[in-house]
Structure to design on (192 residues):
């Protein structure tokens, strides 16, 4: 049964229906819950060398409410993460403090290997992650897709449109991404 008090905007086509919303299902709330929150970003990013290029892959999960997240790979270092509300934010109708989460093995339906990113772009993405950590999460306007779109905008990819994972997935396909289900790679680091 749906959980009362938490509402998600209803979208028809590419338009949000003003004043029209529906309660989140328990499964959607489970999907919105950060299962492995990153509490120390410096520690999380410690093995990345900001003076070297890296590879970026972006993902979108189209199921239910969906999710969008990224993986940065540099040598044998693999970091998979996305933006979530902190659990207490759900009690406030999907608006509240946010956090980054280790998204190892998160389901996705669409992916785009963006390819190599420059050291400057890598640094900008890490700085963006630092700004998002503990920023305000809003299910409708500042969410996982917003974070992933902001990453793409750093790379010069114009990511306009609604901040919904399914629309984001469609945009990834237009950019050469593939609709193939999988799981985000495990986060692993090669440094101590």
């Amino acid at each position: 049964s749906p959980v009362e008090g938490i509402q998600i905007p209803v979208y028809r086509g590419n338009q949000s229906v003003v004043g029209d919303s529906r309660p989140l299902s328990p499964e959607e709330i489970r999907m919105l819950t950060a299962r492995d929150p990153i509490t120390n970003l410096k520690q999380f990013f410690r093995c990345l060398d900001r003076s070297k290029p890296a590879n970026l892959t972006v993902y979108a999960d189209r199921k239910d409410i969906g999710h969008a997240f990224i993986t940065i790979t540099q040598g044998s270092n693999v970091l998979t993460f996305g933006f979530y509300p902190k659990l207490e934010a759900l009690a406030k109708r999907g608006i509240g403090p946010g956090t980054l989460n280790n998204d190892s093995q998160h389901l996705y339906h669409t992916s785009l290997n963006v390819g190599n990113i420059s050291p400057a772009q890598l640094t900008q993405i890490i700085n963006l992650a630092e700004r998002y950590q503990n920023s305000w999460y809003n299910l409708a306007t500042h969410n996982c897709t917003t974070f992933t779109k902001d990453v793409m905008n750093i790379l010069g990819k114009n990511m306009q449109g609604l901040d919904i994972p399914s629309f984001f997935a469609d945009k990834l396909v237009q950019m050469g991404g593939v609709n193939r289900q999988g799981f985000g790679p495990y986060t692993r680091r090669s440094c101590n």
About this structure: The radius of gyration is 16 Å. The first strand starts at residue 3 and ends at 12. Confidence is low (pLDDT under 50) at residues 1-7, 10-19.
